[in-house]
Amino acid sequence: MPKKLNILMFGPAYGHNIQPFIEFFEANTSYELTFAYSGQNDFLASTKNVKFIEYSKSLFSLLKLTSTIKKEYDIIWYHGGYELNILRFIFLFKHKNTKIVLNVWGEHIPRIMLKNNAESKKYLKYYKKAYIIQCNWFGVQKLLLTNFPEDKLPVLLWGLDATFFKRTNSVLRPVTQDFIESIDTEKINFFYPKSFTEASDHDCIIEAVKLLKEKGAYQFCVYFWTGNVSRGNFEKDAVEKIKRYQLEEFIKIEQHEFLPFIDIKAIWEKMDCGLQISINDQLSSTLLEPMYLKRELIATNIEPYQILLEKFPELELHLIERKPKALAFRMDDFIDGNTTSDAVLENRKKVIEKEFNFKKNIQKMMDYYLQLLK
Question: What is the pTM for the complete model shown?
Answer without folding.
Answer: 0.88
